[in-house]
Amino acid sequence: MSETALDIQIKTLPHQPGVYQYYDAEDNLIYVGKAKDIKKRVSSYFTKNHDYGKTRVLVKKIAKIKHIVVETESDALLLENNLIKKYKPRYNVLLKDDKSYPWICVKNERFPRIFPTRRVIKDGSEYFGPYTSMKTVKTLLGLIKGLYQLRTCNYHLSEEKVESGKYKVCLEYHLGNCKGACEGLETEEEYHSNIKAIREILKGNFKDSLQQFRKQMKALAENMQFEEAQKVKEKLDILENYQSKSTVVNPKISNVDVFSIISDESYAYINFLQLSYGSIIRSHTLEIKKKLQESDKDLLELAVTEIRQRFHSKSKEIYVPFKIDLGDEVKVTVPKLGDKKSILDLSERNAKYYRLDKLKQIKITDPDRHTNRIMAQMKADLRLSEEPRHIECFDNSNIQGTNPVAACVVFKNGKPSKKDYRHFNIKTVEGPDDFASMEEVVFRRYKRLLEEDQPLPQLIIIDGGKGQLSSALKSLDSLGLRGKIAIIGIAKRLEELFYPDDPIPLYLDKKSETLKIIQQLRNEAHRFGIEHHRNRRSKGALKTELENIPGVGEQTIIDLMKRFKTVKRIANAKLDELEAVVGASRANKVYNYYHND
Questions:
Q1: Are 43 and 20 within 8 A, CB to CB?
Q2: Which residues form the UvrC family homology region profile domain (predicted)?
Q3: Which residue, 54, 213, 376, 390, is most buried by CB atoms nearer than 10 A?
Q4: Residues near 59 by beta carbon (within 8 Å), at least 6 away in sequence
């Protein structure tokens, strides 16, 4: 299909909510999207200059456009989600989920059994869930078993069979775990009142059960049935303990879904918490691999629709960190403070921990992917034209203006490359002049790399503010390297990042991996520089004292320092103590130097 025909298609698109589909020349569906205004959204693909390479490739491949108009935005979201799952277009994020989640089944029987299952059968039974882990299911079933005496047998307890005496009570009855419905020892009405209370517990509502147990306990105590009252009190304690653990916010917050998103260059992590009566009854985190540098808003809208479908959520309100478009059927709340904000923060922490766990696993199983992700993140955060695989950081050290030195540390692929670290003694600068010292060491470093035809870094970091950065730039200018290597300065106080010719500093998120690596570089350069500075000062101190003694060489000085630790102790040592270390001849020379009037 020619470009003109595609232009005509775009011009005839409606200004309505719906879904658009892009096809390539081979008639393969390559992308599905939703929009409030189909024409406006599709036109933006062909009028914008896209920074991201994959988006540019997608636009070049579009040969045909189809669209489906729907009534509302929520319909568009659902349709988009279903089309993506059905056709799996190449440029859409895939919300894969091959897990079968566990449910709790309340069987459609005269005396219903309650058990876990992974299969939902449409036979009139009730299913609660799905739950994100079998551990949660077992905890709930354990709680229910401790509170209510339900049957576990598979008998068909019809009225006729029970009355005919077909079944006999089993061990569970004698253990007190069942009330013997199989022999008609428990009425249907009594059994179903327990099932009704269990339904409320599974929904997260403990209020009715707590009231019922309190009434029972009070009645038994008034009738002097203290042993039975104690048993009910134990059940009450179990339920109150479980409720206190599961209730995390105000119990008035009920039937609410909470969503948060944490994302980096390649992946997004969406956490879902479902609340009922102030209790978290479900938690799940979804990982999404980005395809076209999708925004957090787009990804969250897609994930909310998918997760609510997957877990059959009917909640009429959701809490999210920013406004998203889900149509008129769901109320979208962006909490700013109080209990609602607390629960949103909890969801965000869950997403962060999930991401950290994933990153730790990747670091072990696929270190290259971890490195590639960090490099891509640094490139984006620092607005670089290429990934900073090779970074060098400079720091000056001239404590109290003596022995000025500088250090250069090197990181490759985000990790220290200690064999490439370099020390510099300042040669051309008199006194403590940080700016001139920085200009000298940067010039010397890259003049040598150029002369030896060594690879240059993609990023230089200067420990200092605008002044040190300007000095380093002078050296790059004189070597003809300005513009060929990215260079930034980091000021210690507020962790400000300065760029050449930009008066406004960049502030990175204090928790970002990019800032952590820059801080690690800066700290390593400082440590390495201080270490060299101390060594020079120590050498200087030795030289002024011991090297002035005629006939005493470097090895003698080292032997004496090892034994006595300080020059003062050497000066105060007795002759026989000196002789024990360096022999009679040299001991006499040292002793006479300090004791000759």
A1: no
A2: 262-476
A3: 213
A4: 45, 46, 50
Confidence bin at 596 (pLDDT 50/70/90): confident
For residues 299 and 268, what is the distance between their CA atoms, to the nearest angstrom?
8
Mean pLDDT confidence for 388-412: 79
| Confidence check: pLDDT of 541 > 70 | no
Contact (CB, 8 A) for 20 and 32: yes
- CA-nearest of 484, 437, 426 to 463 is 437
Q: Determine the average pLDDT of the residues in 101-129.
A: 84
Helical residues (DSSP H) of 247-337, grouped into ranges: 296-310
CA neighbor of 135 nearest in space, from 102, 109, 159, 158: 102
Please give the DSSP secondary-structure letter assigned to residue 210. H
Three-state secondary structure call for residue 245? helix
548-595 belongs to which CATH class? mainly alpha
pLDDT at 538: 55
pTM of the model: 0.55
Give the phi and the psi of residue 419 in degrees, each rounded to 5: -70, -20
Q: Provide the pLDDT confidence category of residue 400 given band limits of 50, 70 and 90.
A: very low
Give how far Cα 457 sits from Cα of 393, 412, 452, Å. Answer: 10, 9, 14
Query: Which of these CATH numbers, 3.30.365.10, 3.40.1440.10, 3.40.50.410, 3.40.1350.10, describes 5-92?
Result: 3.40.1440.10
Distance of CA 43 to the CA centre of its chain: 35
Hey, what CATH topology would domain 374-529 get? Answer: Nucleotidyltransferase; domain 5 (3.30.420)
Longest dimension (CA), the chain: 125
